[in-house]
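Bumping with the actual sequence this time:
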Amino acid sequence: MTEEAGPVRDYRLDPINEDDDYNLMALINQTSHAFSLARTRELSEHGLSMMRAAVLLVLQARDNNATPTEISQWLLREPHTISALLDRMEKDGLVRRYRDMHRRNTVRVAMTEKGRNAYQASLERATFHRVMSVLSREEREDLRNAMTRLWLRALQEVKHEVAWASTAPSHVESSAP
């Protein structure tokens, strides 16, 4: 059952020229930002950031064995950004890096016990559930379909500019039920 959020208003961030595409994208951006603020607050109780929790999620999905490149592709971030994040997470005892036994020039990443505990704590997602409760099952599916189409189209727009854009959907397709 969904909770009512009150009457739906038309929030336009550019009401002067009524550029509908801009207004919809601005609304998506503002919604994402509000979600991020709420999620950051929730994760900070466990000493995590959203990006740290995301890395731990990728490691869990990859059987606690991923390369930094795979992590950057899953999270749609440049490899150097993930490398710096992994440096900090390793220093804090959440992950460890090691050489692949079969491919000596490959580095792999795994969660430590502290990282596994942090991952478990990150599974508390009360904020998401409270916010998403305003949507019916059908509205959720419609939103998922629309956002997926927008995401794939946006990736096409940047595929020549960022290396990860062409491989980004592959982890979704390979893990879909």
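The tokens above came from a reply further down the thread. Helices lie at 20-44, 50-61, 68-75, 79-91, 113-122, 126-132, 137-158, 170-175.
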